[in-house]
Amino acid sequence: MKQLIENLISDGHLKTPKIINAFYKIDRIDFVPEELKYEAYTNAPLPIGYGQTISQPLTVAFMLELLQPKSGHKILDIGSGSGWQSSLLACITSDEGRVIAIERILELSEFGKDNSQKYNFKNLEFIVGDGSMGYKKEAPYDRIIVAAAAFDKIPEELKKQLKINGRLVIPVKNSIWLLIKKEENKFEEKEFPGFVFVPLVEES
Ligand code: SAH
Fold first, then answer.
1. Atom 2, ligand 1: residue with shortest CA distance
2. pTM greater than 0.85 (yes/no)
3. Which residue's C-alpha comes closest to atom 11 of ligand 1?
4. Are 170 and 176 in contact (CB under 8 A)?
5. How far apart are CA 51 and CA 131, in angstroms?
6. How many CB atoms lie within 10 A of CB 127?
7. C-alpha 5: how far from its chain's center?
8. Ligand 1 pocket, 145 CB below 6 A?
9. Within a 10 A sphere around the Cβ of 73, how many other Cβ atoms?
10. If we measure between CA atoms, which residue out of 128, 95, 87, 132 comes closest to residue 110?
11. Closest Cα to atom 6, ligand 1: which residue?
């Protein structure tokens, strides 16, 4: 694990002390299936069942650096899967913050919840449902992060559910997009191409 994290730091992917600290504290081995534990520290996505994967460490590092989660933030994590990224976020936001982790596959939501149990987070809640339209009940959010790629554009509803100065990090096809909400209908947008994601299922 140490080697993996040190490589992410020396390659310039991990920069922020609070994010680096979370990578050391939240051990990826706790979030991969039993038969793949020996691969937990390779820099690759790994299957977690139901055609889904635990994200590649480099991709998670890159997205969290764009997201800039802070202590006390309320964060919506869409596509919680293994629960690894949700737990990293819960560690970063600390007790004053709150992470809502939404996942459409019941069994994966339970897998993520079980995996994170060991860390005893009081600020992390797992919800089963379609997150492609966000989660209105708890909106607005300081941060929204999506782990699966939207098919052709950023869902408007996610933009609505952000606070002013809030950040949304979302893959669309093979690019990661960072949106910063400047005013109600004004966003600063930046595209980072060259990534691979499982599809965001847009049911609604
Ligand atoms: N952060 C997770 C990534 C899992 S892969 C991890 O590192 O383990 C992306 C996840 O998004 C999958 O579990 C998939 O089931 C979920 N997903 C896809 N479309 C979704 C939707 N509309 N709502 C909620 N979750 C969704």
1. 81
2. yes
3. 79
4. yes
5. 18
6. 17
7. 17
8. no
9. 22
10. 128
11. 54
Q: Residue 105 CA: which ligand 1 atom is closest?
A: 15
Which stretches does DSSP call E strand in the chain? 46-49, 52-54, 74-78, 98-103, 124-128, 141-146, 162-172, 175-183, 186-193
Residue type present at position 150: A
**Calpha distance 159→181 (Å, rounded):** 8
Q: Cβ(45)–Cβ(53) under 8 Å?
A: yes
**Centroid of ligand 1 to alpha carbon of 73 (angstroms):** 21
Q: Check pocket membership of 116 for ligand 1, CB cut-off 6 A.
A: no
pLDDT digits (tens, 9 = 90+) for 78-130: 999 999 999 999 999 999 999 999 999 999 999 999 999 999 999 999 999 99
Residue 55 falls in the annotated catalytic set: yes
Upstream peptide bond of 193 is cis (omega within 30 degrees of 0): no
Q: Which fold has domain 2-193?
A: Rossmann fold (3.40.50)
Q: Facing residues of 172 across strands?
A: 150, 175
Given the CA of residue 200, which atom of ligand 1 is nearest to it?
19
| Residue-level pLDDT at 128 | 98
CA distance 172 to 183: 23
Regions of the chain short of the pLDDT cut 70: 204
- Cα 20 to middle of ligand 1, angstroms: 23
Euclidean distance between CA atoms 146 and 65, whole angstroms: 14
CA of 101 to the centre of ligand 1 (A): 10
